[in-house]
Design brief:
It is a single chain. This protein is of the alpha+beta class. Helix content is about 45%, strand content about 10%. It is built from 32 helices and 20 strands. In the N-terminal section; belongs to the glycosyltransferase 51 family. InterPro entries: Beta-lactam/transpept-like, Glyco_trans_51, Glycosyltr_51/Transpeptidase, Lysozyme-like_dom_sf, PBP_transglycosylase, PCN-bd_Tpept. Its main location: membrane.
């Protein structure tokens, strides 16, 4: 009997010894890297995690991010104590007592997770082990996977504890741990779910975030608020249990839901997506030529840059609201006006060309597919999300159906700038960035219509015309330009023997007079003026230039119009003020570009501003006053192109210039009627609604309550004349009024040139400053 017991004991000891030896060999095989790399001390000291670059608005509020992983690291001091307490109470209450491994929990994990291969035991991994898992992802080792990964994390955890103190470990963990909705780190999670920095989290908010760590999908408060609240209460209860929270506080919170202020920072969503795309392009361009101290190119998706911009986030929100309110209603009217005869449906050429310039078609063509195969693929139905103003829908449509669907939508481009610096305050590149990527502020160059007329009139005033010079609105045929003859909106504007003053012609946007003014001012002079005002787009040397046949971007027009409230100096719009690295070190600061010389005289500036005030008060933009009841100091100009394809409005206030364009993406699709498509109806309402919203917010009194500087007495006297003058009896009988005035005006232009030449001589001789006409 003793012999049997002795033999059994020996075998037991051998088995136990063998198991211990096997475990030690297994452990050491992991330790020495036979199952994969184990980071050494040097590597652990240099832990660098990819961080999101952040974009901030004028008031340094977060407006967007660029990232591979939505993470923003913060220092331990910026993590609130209640977040630390919630984490430790829930995840590792002996955190301050162990050296990376909680041996009490280890044996439970060993037998349940490792020997039984059950990964549901939980509670065994310390915060340091979880950090190791976050930093060095688990791998698939087959049947030994759980054992290898657990032991690997224990080894790394011990090494982490030798490199970092407890505070540093907590900071590393909370900066790397994944939260719900593809968010990494406490700072990013705090912004996403509560719209605030982590240091401002309340105890129930901290508990909600800590609760996600158990299962970040299942306890997502956006998707499952009840489950999240239940888990939050569990965290709060743990905090009470380990003396991190008073029972009275817990009782007051446990029945009250935690309020979310969820903000998505995906590139397609959120505030100002078109603006953020342009910021990204400019920063990436800067990064290519400005490496870091080690010669490496900054990566906007990984290096945690902080980009500060001029955008006014609240103003941008108001602009987006105004745009959506107007464009959604206008779209309904637009589609209804065409009925079944809509050009995007009836015009086969428009559809065919839209398909052939679409990305799906071009991609398949590049792969070498023949036409039939491409069309078969594009005609195949599939589930697709379709944009609609009321609600996006998931429908079973072909790619071609989708392309035709989007042809019908009116789009927009809108920008607001500070006319004194060029700082961009709002930027709307289209109606929906997710579905319409093309930016109509910078990329698009559409015909600008009558919004070009102020540049023509400015040139004319600089070359001898006066606001009370009179012109006949009668048509003129330009034989040298293939018999081209401009017309006006109504026949009444072409009455015989009636003459309009320059100021009235601009306010009523009389086309025939604008072309005559261009003729008198000179096409080359007008193009030169446009260039001085910051227009860089090509301008055709033809009479129709007066009617805005040139394609110019919304951004260019804003910079040019700024001259009318910026001492005759245009501005170059800009939007980045500085870039910092992830530690707050300033990498670069940007200053607005200053225009050295005025584009035109102060006298002309005041005259033009008064004439554009008249456009708003009594001209084509007067619905600002009678429909929208705005009493702000506003000047402006409407614009409409041929066949009502483009509607424009430029609104000028003392401290803000706003340019708005509305039209279809395909320039061949226009409004069916002028009453609907004119700039006063299509584009002006976006500006008007925007100003209404700003006027209701006292924060924006700087913009809405400001007044233009007083106009000089000489300018007011020069503007004091009748709007309409009828030809005298003798003029009716003997003279062509236009020819008589043409001679008179040319004489004035010659005098103006002589005056400038003389001033130039004395300026060269004595270095004196040129005096303004007033």
């Amino acid at each position: 009997m003793r012999k049997i017991k002795s033999k059994w004991l020996r075998w037991s000891l051998l088995v136990i010894g063998g198991l211990i030896l096997a475990f030690l060999l297994f452990y050491w095989s992991i330790y020495f890297g036979l199952w994969g790399h184990i980071p050494d001390r040097k590597e652990l000291e240099e832990i660098v995690q990819a961080e999101a670059s952040e974009v901030y608005g004028q008031e340094e509020e977060l407006i967007g991010k660029y990232y591979m992983f939505d993470r923003q690291s913060i220092a331990y001091e910026d993590i609130p104590e209640n977040m630390i307490d919630a984490l430790i109470a829930t995840e590792d209450f002996r955190f301050y007592d162990h050296n990376g491994i909680d041996y009490r929990s280890f044996f439970r994990v060993f037998f349940k997770s490792i020997l039984l291969r059950d990964d549901s035991s939980g509670g065994g991994s310390t915060i340091t082990q979880q950090l190791a898992k976050n930093l060095y992802k688990r791998k698939n080792y087959g049947r030994l996977g759980i054992a290898v990964n657990k032991l690997r994390e224990m080894i790394i955890a011990r090494r982490i504890e030798k490199v970092y103190d407890k505070k540093e470990i907590l900071a590393l963990y909370l900066n790397t741990v994944p939260f719900s909705d593809n968010t990494y780190g406490i700072e990013s999670a705090s912004y996403k779910f509560f719209g605030k920095r982590a240091r401002l989290l309340s105890v129930d908010e901290a508990a909600t975030l800590a609760g996600m760590l158990k299962a970040n999908y299942y306890y997502n408060p956006r998707l499952f608020p009840e489950k999240s609240m239940e888990r939050r209460n569990t965290v709060l209860h743990q905090m009470v249990k380990y003396d991190y929270l008073d029972k009275e506080v817990y009782d007051s919170l446990k029945t009250v839901p935690t309020e979310l202020r969820y903000t998505a920072y995906s590139h397609d969503e959120g505030i100002a997506p078109y603006f953020r795309e342009q910021v990204k392009k400019e920063v990436e361009s800067w990064c290519k030529t400005n490496p870091d101290s080690e010669g490496k190119t900054y990566d906007i998706y990984r290096d945690g840059l902080r980009i500060f911009t001029t955008l006014d986030a609240k103003m941008q929100s108001l602009a987006e609201e105004a745009m959506k309110e107007h464009l959604s209603k206008l779209q309904q009217q637009f589609e209804k006006s065409y009925g079944k005869r809509a050009p995007w449906m009836a015009n086969a050429r428009i559809k065919e060309e839209a398909v052939k310039r679409s990305q799906p078609y071009l991609s398949l063509k590049q792969q070498g597919w023949d036409e039939k195969k491409i069309m078969d693929s594009l005609n195949k139905p599939r589930k697709i999300e379709l944009f609609d103003w009321e609600e996006n829908t998931i429908a079973n449509r072909s790619t071609i159906d989708s392309i035709v669907h989007y042809l019908k939508f009116l789009n927009t481009g809108m920008i607001s700038i500070d006319p004194h610096t060029g700082a961009i305050r709002t930027w709307i590149g289209g109606i929906n960035y997710k579905h319409f990527k093309y930016d109509h502020v910078r990329q698009s160059k559409r015909q600008v219509g009558s919004t070009f007329k102020p540049i023509v009139y400015t040139t004319a005033l600089e070359n001898g015309l006066y606001p009370c010079s009179y012109f006949s609105p009668k048509k003129v045929v330009y034989e040298e330009y293939d018999g081209w003859s401009p017309s006006n909106a109504t026949d009444k504007e072409e009455e015989e023997f009636i003459n309009y003053s320059l100021k009235y012609a601009l306010s009523r946007s009389i086309n025939t007079i604008a072309v005559k003014v261009l003729d008198y001012a000179g096409i080359s002079n007008t193009i030169a003026m446009a260039k001085r005002m910051g227009i860089v787009s090509p301008l055709p040397e033809v009479p129709s230039l007066a009617l805005g046949t040139a394609g110019i971007s919304v951004e260019e027009m804003a910079g040019a119009y700024a001259a009318y409230v910026n001492k005759s100096r245009p501005v170059k719009p800009f939007f980045i003020t500085r870039i910092e690295d992830n530690e707050g070190n300033v990498l670069v600061e940007f200053e607005p570009e200053q225009t050295a010389r005025p584009a035109f005289s102060e006298h002309t500036r005041q005259v033009m501003l008064e004439m554009m005030k008249a456009t708003v008060n009594e001209g084509t933009a007067s619905r600002i006053r009678y429909s929208y009841k705005l009493q702000n100091a506003i000047a402006g100009k409407t614009g409409t192109t041929q066949s009502n394809k483009d509607g424009w409005f430029v609104g000028i206030t003392p401290n803000l210039v706003t340019v708005t364009w509305v039209g279809a993406d395909d320039h061949r699709i226009g409004f069916r009627s002028t009453s609907m498509g004119q700039g006063a109806n299509s584009a002006l309402p976006v500006f008007a609604k925007f100003m209404q919203k700003m006027s209701r917010d006292t924060t924006y009194n700087t913009y809405t309550a400001a007044r233009f500087p007083a106009t000089s007495a000489s300018v007011l006297e020069e503007l004091n004349c009748d709007n309409i003058r009828e030809d005298t009896f003798l003029e009716k009988i003997f003279g062509n009024p236009d020819e008589v005035r043409k001679k008179e005006i040319r004489e004035n232009r010659k005098k103006a040139k002589k005056k400038k030449k003389k001033e130039g001589f004395f300026k060269r001789l004595f270095g004196g400053k040129k005096r303004n006409r007033d």
